[in-house]
Amino acid sequence: MGHVDIKTGIFHKTCRASLHMLRKPAGWALDVGSLDEAERAGAHTVEITDAEANKTYVAPIRRIRNDGALLDRGYGEQLLLPLDKWAVRDSRQLDLWGAA
Known about the structure:
Elements: E1 3-5, E2 10-15, H1 17-20, E3 22-23, E4 26-31, H2 32-40, E5 45-50, E6 55-60, H3 61-67, E7 69-71, E8 78-82, E9 87-90, H4 91-97
Parallel strand pairs: 2-5
Antiparallel strand pairs: 1-2, 3-4, 4-8, 5-6, 6-9, 7-8
């Protein structure tokens, strides 16, 4: 689970790609129930920070719902958004500018 920043409307999760990123198909999957809760709390955007690569993946929840594929691989219903649908930024660059 992640947390929602009420001021910014961002649902943020920190993960390790080696453990949590799907490989086939390549992308990030989010629990449908968590997305529902995040939206009820005011979120409109998801940010997933890969703690290993210092990259942050950003997508509007609307895109995840519209372009995501529903799947269940034993962890409950999830929506998978392929990697090419995420905006990616290098978290180390933000740290250098003092923005993170």
